[in-house]
Amino acid sequence: MAILYALVARGSVVLAEYSATSTTANAIARQILEKIPGNNDTNASYSQDRYIFHVKRTDGLTVLCMADDTAGRRIPFAFLEEIHQKFVRTYGRAVLSAQPYAMNDDFSRVLSQQIEYFSSDPNADRINRLKGEMSQVRNVMIENIDKVLDRGDRLELLVDKTATMQGNTFRFRKQARRFRNTVWWRNVKLTIVLIVLLLVIIYVVLAFVCHGPTLPSCL
């Protein structure tokens, strides 16, 4: 199963969660909730061992899931987007004042169903590609995880650098093309200078041979 655990929280207050297996995911998830800085909307991914914790925070509501590292990031973030929309549609402004686990009885079943769907149904990935809902994956927050979590186990921040790599590749190609053009023009100029110099040498030699004192004139 690609996605193994999920929760919905307001700040560090967990409102609903579900785990498909027995892990320490809930303990790690709570530390992530407590240590993520600021209140801005955030998309981030953190790795530990062979698991990745994906986080989406929008308008103060945080949706988090733990997935196998082979799942990539497109499917987990599609799952988080779907869970966020369902939760907001279902509970509206009630999430602003809800007590811990106030929505767990009902929404944990939704989490279970969506985990099963996004982990097992191949249509989950195709549908979200067509919708074009995954642009936020490119905006994964860049942070130093050592500043986010003060704990013994090292969690390494994963950053989606696709856009940056594409920009760097374009600039590299442009610079390489400019360099090749510069080198080509330099070679052309050098060749012209060498030809002119050779012609001058030939002219001087011919002039010396034809007009030298010991030889008759070439005319």
UniProtKB/TrEMBL annotation:
Key word Heme present: no
Subcellular location(s) per record: Prevacuolar compartment membrane; Vacuole membrane
Matches recorded under InterPro entries: Longin-like_dom_sf, Longin_dom, Synaptobrevin-like, Synaptobrevin-like_transport, V_SNARE_CC
V-SNARE coiled-coil homology domain sequence ranges: 126-186
Record's signal peptide: 1-16
Keyword Signal: yes
Superkingdom in the source lineage: Eukaryota
Membrane topology qualifier: Single-pass type IV membrane protein
Longin domain sequence ranges: 7-111
UniProt entry keywords in alphabetical sequence: Coiled coil, Membrane, Protein transport, Signal, Transmembrane, Transmembrane helix, Transport
SUPFAM superfamilies named among the record's database cross-references: SNARE fusion complex, SNARE-like
Regions that span the bilayer: 187-209
GO biological process, one term: protein transport
Pfam family, one: Synaptobrevin
Example of a GO cellular component annotation carried by this entry: vacuolar membrane
Family according to the record: Belongs to the synaptobrevin family.
Biological function: Involved in the targeting and/or fusion of transport vesicles to their target membrane.
Protein name: Vesicle-associated membrane protein 711
